[in-house]
Amino acid sequence: MSTPDAPRSLAEALRASDDAAMAALLRTRPDLLTPVPNDLTQLATRAGTRASVVRALERLDRFAQQVAEALAVAADPATYPELLGLLAGDDGDGGDGTGAAEVRGALDRALATLRGQALVWGGDDRLRLVRTARELLAPTPQRPSPTGLGPTVAEAMAGMSPGRVQSLVAAAGLAATHDAVSAVEALTALFTDRERMAALLDEAPTESVEVLSRLVWGPPYGQVTAEPAAHLRWLIDRGLLLPTAPGTVVLPREAALHLRGGRAHRVLEATAPPVEAAREHRPQVVDATAAGQAHMALATVEELLKDWDEGGPAVLRAGGLSVRDLKRTAVALDVPEPQAAFWVELAYAAGLLAADGEADERYAATPAYDTWQELPAAERWAGLATAWLTATRTAGLVGGRDSKDRTLSALGPGLDRSAAPEVRHRVLTLLAGLPEGAAPVPDSLLARLRWERPPGVGASDLRSRLAGWTLEEAELLGVTGRGALASHARALLSADPAHPSAELAVAARNAARLLAPLLPDPLDHVLLQADLTAVAPGPLQRPLADALTVLADVESKGGATVYRFTPGSVRRALDAGQSASDLHAFLAEHSRTPVPQPLTYLIDDVARKHGHLRVGAASAYVRCDDEGVLNEILADKRAQGLRLRRLAPTVLAAQADPAALLDGLRSLGFAPSAESADGDVLITRAHSHRTPPRTPPEPVPDGPPLPDATLIDAAVRAIRAGDLASTAPRKTTTPGTPSTGELPRTTPAETLATMQAAVLTGETLWIGYVNAEGAASQRVIAPVRVEGGFVTAYDHTADEVRTYPLHRVTGVAELADD
Predict the structure, then answer these.
(1) Residue 694 contacts residue 354 (beta carbons within 8 Å)
(2) CA-CA distance, 421 to 430, in Å (whole number)?
(3) d(CA 475, CA 442)
(4) Which of 45, 440, 727, 772 yields a CA-CA distance of 20 to 30 A from 503?
């Protein structure tokens, strides 16, 4: 309850709070901290600015918002019982069946939150909502209140002629008054008196009651004609509908509250809706499923970057991937396009791919990808998971439209949503609150998120969309299994999302340690089949997988990968510098089954033809010891585009360059090899293309960064000291001494004399000081020494001894003895 010394302003309320409360305020509203306010008056002023209040209101839970909305339509100031009545109504439960004790407890917690965020101040007998919040939430003709209530009787009747006011009073059965103010008060008293209001409505025609029922929960405005119907005229004559503009009437707030049973809201949402469990699985099943998904995630990212190893798609002029390139990537990964966009964005967020920055800019793997590949599988997954958890880029937006109706492309601009990390972390936290192995009912999860952070009026429910994408992406990444949170993912939640760099590395290591036993060990063998295929029954060791990818084509993926050997794939291995004997030895070493005879014949046949033709630069030439082969090439109509001519019985010349000639002859079914100017066979290995070193994209912060404890403690001390300097009582005996809040102004001689006197007497002085950047401040100091144009003093503002140049001191004043 308020005391006789109740605060008269928000600044006084903050001044009466302790340091812990002020630190909590700066922590929940970090925008108040930049720059650090000079004193509590400046802090209160900043806390009442429109941008800061809007930000604070948007971050309240639904019930705290309802309390603020109720205060916006209550009397200013309001008492605790009046506020409780607006929330709970006549029946005391707010219309949702919540008990009166629960409503009171929820109200106490909400008021503590609002006071802690400097949105409400004052004791329980004088509760005040900050003026800016009241203006934002109060009803206007252009913007009805969130509660659906209209203006009060006094507000709606402002400007009405005295004769019209008296006629309304008479029609309502009230005694005539001597002035309009008394008449308005009498009509207000009638509408707030439950018994008399009930008696008045008992006389109303049925059609009039139906009109009121349509307006009671808002919007409270309606349209009437110049000659309204009898049932409307009955309401207008008695002030139950008051004119606000030609042809427009409004249901006054007091009448609406009577019809609502005293409640400001149709349904009071005093408690958070629970997250319901849809089904439960054994935790071991959840972990195994999530581990399988984690393995598939690693394989998908590796396949994506391997596909872009020699240089990926071109970067659009506006940035990002083209729609065609995204489709090609989806086909290569054998996933839908939205999932392809997710994997591309995940690799980008993890710093594994970026644009190369060259003239013909293309996407490619970064040097960090080579380092990432050498890590154990569990650590590679932890790196992807932490990048996903903290990234603000949102793959779910790909394909949508921005504010200028431009298509949002993968890896392009416009995909950052600063709320994404907080929503992901919150979704996983809610999943962690369910029993182990339990998957949530998605609608109940979304309802809980909407209660914790309701969407603004007219705003899209971005948090619900982010939550839906989070559930899908967590399943793809192996954070969840069968919809339930996996045990290794719980370790990621130990990191504070506000300071991820400090704790996320430790959380990632713990998650990797829990995941490692669940991942399959890489195999060093395959199973060769007689139909020219090889089956890998699990993940392969990297050298084996890389070599097999060159020698064979991937035919299908899944729990087991199937590779197929073809003449083209064998020729690819020979082009990479392998010999037939090398390939035979490789297969014999890594196959658990005997090498099938058809595969041996295939390798020997391709090797026998490989390099039979030689291509060099003439522009290009073809030489072959077998004249018949060259005759066959010259006779083939498909070779006309190569513009070949015979130089010798065993040599053909072409005007095409060697690379085009090689590709052209291979398309005709031959297996040529390139040679150097000395006649040596050139090994055409593909060279991996890497970008210059790149850092992962920085997350876009959701407002100012959250301050750490050290900064908050320092800011609290500075604000307290600055407030002491600005509010300390001054002696007023000296002419020209400024009033509180203004910098003191004295001549240099007066400043020096006062400083020297204070050194002798030990008095504390109030000074104005301008630093090197030109910023002015007030300080309370106790001078210790004055010499050489400097004063050394104990600065009560900074709580330390400092030295100040006297020429930067604007003036000095003595503090009052009390």
Answers:
(1) yes
(2) 14
(3) 14
(4) 440
List Cα–Cα distances, 238 to 202, 204, 297, 427, in angstroms: 13, 10, 71, 53
Give the β-pairing of 620-623 and 651-654.
antiparallel
CA atoms within 13 A of residue 128's CA, in its CB half-sphere: 18
How far apart are the C-alpha atoms of 290 and 283, rounded to whole Å? 10
Among the residues of 518-657, which ranges form H helices? 542-551, 567-575, 580-590, 597-609, 627-635
Residues in the chain: 818
Q: Running DSSP on this structure, what letter comes out for residue 380? A: H
* 90 vs 145: CA distance, rounded Å: 21
Please report the pLDDT score of residue 465 as a whole number: 93
pTM, two decimal places: 0.77
Report how many helices (DSSP H) and strands (DSSP E) the chain contains, helices first: 33, 25
Q: Model confidence over 115-154: pLDDT tens digits?
A: 999 999 999 999 999 999 998 887 766 666 788 888 888 8
How close are the terminal C-alpha atoms of the chain, in Å?
Answer: 29
Query: Using an 8 Å Cβ cutoff, are 151 and 252 in contact?
Result: yes
Q: Phi and psi dihedrals of 289, rounded to 5?
A: -65, -45
Cα–Cα separations (whole angstroms), residue 216 to 55, 169, 248: 30, 22, 16
CB 329 within 8 A of CB 342: no
* Residues 290, 399: Cα–Cα separation, whole Å: 28
- What angle, 0 to 180 degrees and rounded to 10, lies between the N-to-C axes of helices 462-477 and 442-452? 130
Joined tokens for residue 294: 């984690």
* C-beta atoms surrounding 762 within 10 Å: 9
Q: What is the dihedral of CA 785, 789, 791, 797, to 10 degrees?
A: 180
Task: Please tell me whether the peptide bond between 596 and the residue prior to it is cis, using omega within 30 degrees of 0.
Answer: no
What is the sign, positive or negative, of the torsion defined by CA atoms of 567, 569, 570, 571?
A: positive
For residue 789, is pLDDT > 90? no
Q: Which two tokens stand for residue 213?
A: 């029922």
Whether the bond between 219 and the residue before it is cis, its omega within 30 degrees of 0, is: yes
Beta-sheet strands, E only, within 672-738: 673-674
Q: What is the dihedral angle through the alpha carbons of 628, 629, 632, 637, rounded to the nearest 10 degrees?
A: -160
Tell me, what amino acid is at 197? Answer: M
Strand locations in 24-178, DSSP E? Answer: 120-121, 128-129
Question: For the chain, what percentages of helix, strand and coil (3-state, to nearest 5) are there?
Answer: 45, 15, 40
**217 in the Ramachandran plot: left (φ > 0), alpha (ψ -120 to 50) or beta?**
alpha
Token pair belonging to 382: 């932890």
What's the confidence (pLDDT) of residue 512? 92
Quote the pLDDT of residue 450: 92
- b (16+ CB within 10 A) / e for 245-264: eeeebbbbbbbbbbbbebbb
- CA within 13 Å, CB half, 75: 13
Lowest pLDDT segment from 360-364, 417-421, 446-450, 723-727: 723-727
Long-range contacts, stretch 641-649, CB < 8 angstroms, 24+ apart: 647/621
Compute CA distances 792 → 488, 743, 781, 782, 798, whole Å: 58, 20, 9, 9, 13
Residue ranges with strand state E in 162-235: 221-223
Contact 666, 672 (CB under 8 A): yes
Could you report the per-residue pLDDT of 582-596, keeping only the tens digit for each? 899 999 999 999 999
Q: In this structure, what are the phi and psi dihedrals at residue 522, rounded to the nearest 5 degrees?
A: -65, 140
pLDDT digits (tens, 9 = 90+) for 522-577: 888 999 998 999 998 888 887 888 888 888 988 887 767 899 999 988 988 888 77
Distances (CA, A) of 435 to 278, 486, 581, 668: 11, 11, 58, 64
| pLDDT tens per residue, range 734-775 | 444 444 456 778 888 888 888 888 888 888 888 888 888 887
Distance CA 770, CA 785 (A): 20
